[in-house]
């Protein structure tokens, strides 16, 4: 569950099809992702 991961982690990485898309501090990745694919996943547009 992504909410649990956000609560307990300091850093997060997002992988898609075996490739690292984005990584960084969890709060930044969840609130201000730099990559559109990460944003789409977090907001439930795919996945």
Structure description:
The protein has about 45 residues and is an alpha+beta fold. The protein has one domain (about 1-40). It has three helices and two strands; from the N terminus they run αββαα. The chain has helices at about 1-10, 25-30, 35-40, and strands spanning about 10-15, 20-25. Strand 1 and strand 2 form a beta hairpin.
Return residue spans where pLDDT drops below 50 for at least 5 consecutive residues: none
Q: What letter string, H or E per element, gives the SSE order?
A: HEEHH
> How would you sum up the major sheet?
2 strands, antiparallel
Shape: globular
- Tally of extended strands? 2
Structural class: alpha+beta
Count of folded domains:
1
Binned strand content: 25-35%
What percent of residues adopt helix (DSSP H or I)?
40-55%
Mean pLDDT: 94
Features of the shown structure:
47 residues, alpha+beta, two-stranded antiparallel ribbon
